[in-house]
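Sorry to interrupt, but I need a hand with the structure work. Could you write out one complete protein record for me, on any chain you like? Could you add the entry underneath, on a fresh line?
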Amino acid sequence: MSTLDLSPVPGRGRLAWEAADAWVMCRRNLVQTWRVPELLVFATIQPVLFVLLFTYVFGGAINVGPGVEYVDYLMPGVFVQTVIFGSMMTGIGLATDKEAGLIDRFRALPMSRSALLTGRTLADLVRNAFIILIMLLVGLAVGFRFGNTTVLAALAGFGLMLLFAYAFSWLSAVIGMSVGSAEAAQSGGMIWIFPFVFASSSFAPVESMPGWLQAFAKHQPVTCTVDAVRALFLGGPVAGDLLAALAWCAGILVVAGPLAVRAYRRGTAH
């Protein structure tokens, strides 16, 4: 006698089922982005303005040490800042779907509970990768150049940025599933992001900050990631900052992932 197949889709394992559902949701969000190109345009304008502003207005007044052009120091910080702000679209998008009642509809379908969140975070990861490419072209246009590094190290820097963006997308998903509107998700996301972005080594050396602020700025995740990316792009010691950045990414994923799934189940429970 054959055993009864209790998997969600007969003949398909649970992981394959969850991966297929996540891909469907990822494709849905990518198509949505493609049909509304203004989302990419507006997401690109802000970091471009940051590059131009800091390079040509503030660059001459910020001392980053001998032998380093400010634009080379700046671009890794702008890259990381861009993907953090881009990851906030995860929470805003989820809050929008929740407010419109779409999440309740998805929950009624025979689909994996994690598919909606995984698909959304993966779609935003693809969008962040595209924006990074645009920002790289902008950086090269204003004078950014890779330093004494290798192609492998530079690729590792871009990979670290995408991993960092993916981790923050899950953190954003927690916010998006915990609030009642897209406006609240946007406000709630930006409030805590600004201290992490600007109280970091993204735009100026930590040593130039007041002593009471340096302790926070040196050890927070944005500084660790920016310093690791900067070392991978320009050359120099990278092991300590890279390990710290990877530890932050892993810690955020371990904590934010289950919290986002829990908020999803609680927020859509009937």
Summary: The chain has ten helices and no strands. The longest helix spans residues 70-100.
